[in-house]
Amino acid sequence: VVVSVLLKSNEVEDRFYLNKQQMSWYSKIYIFVREYRKVHPFSGFFLHIALNALLLTQLIMIMYTYFIYVCVVNFQLLTNNIQVTAYLVIFHFLCVMLFWSLGQSIITPTARVPPVYFADEATDTKLREITPCNNGRYLPDSSTAEQTQKQIKILDEFAESRGLKFVEVDQCNRLRYCYLCGLIKPDRTHHCMSCGACVVKFDHHCPWINKCVSHNNYKFFVLYLLYSCILIAWCILTSAECVIRYFLQQQWIGGLLNILLVAFAVILCAIFAYYPLGQLLIYHIRLASLNETTCEQAKPPNIRCVVM
Fold this sequence. Notes:
Elements: H1 2-22, H2 25-39, H3 41-50, H4 53-77, H5 81-107, H6 121-129, E1 133-134, E2 137-138, H7 145-162, E3 168-169, E4 177-178, E5 183-184, E6 190-192, E7 197-199, E8 204-206, E9 211-213, H8 218-249, H9 256-274, H10 277-290, H11 294-298, E10 302-303
Antiparallel strand pairs: 1-2, 3-10, 4-5, 6-7, 8-9
Helix pairs in contact: 2-3, 4-9, 5-8, 8-9, 8-10
Transmembrane segments: 45-69, 81-102, 221-240, 252-277
Enzyme class: transferase
Subcellular location: Membrane
């Protein structure tokens, strides 16, 4: 009996540390900033602002590409006015759509769980009393068979009292309860470690836009990827003409700086067109065709046979 208890204790600790190891690098940063800000509000505020570093980097690269394409490619290297006008109209249309979709991805409120799913204090206390806990972290997967049955009964009774219906359960056939937020997770809802809250139809937390991609802004996020890839492809194809013409004319000294600037921008665009933008776009188109999220593909949901 002692050996079995020790083995189970080791399994609990291993699972706890495994979950920490599996956490993404940016989730660890978000958690650190969130905890630091609680203790040091002033300096923590600046750390919180610094979480937008990848978004700012992205905007700087877009502005650099804009300057090169408009000021160098169209105003200095291209000579046909009709061609320049057509190129600029298409380019600016794509830019407007890119910034619109990016802005909508950022400003659209994250899909939060409605208040009706939050457990009352009595229900939450009952669940915590019969759930194993290790260093303040509740581990329902380590519950005994008796504890599991009690948890199922408590959760089912609470859901019935609120008129809530679910089809998704955990591997023990329990309704999925979040001990961090104190709520029963609606179907397709998951806890975002970066935000520290449960999110409806959670896909992933994107550090490039410093925002959760979820039910409300998923469409805008995919559109942002789409318009980014189209804009990059347009810039590469239309700028390549200038580079090819430079080598055909063999005027090695004249316009060398402009060609180097254009070549660097083309290489930068080509890299981001492949990863992360291109691969992400293909991946999310596939997910949309399967009606899945990133989280669901990584861990397929368990469906209850009988709908409550």
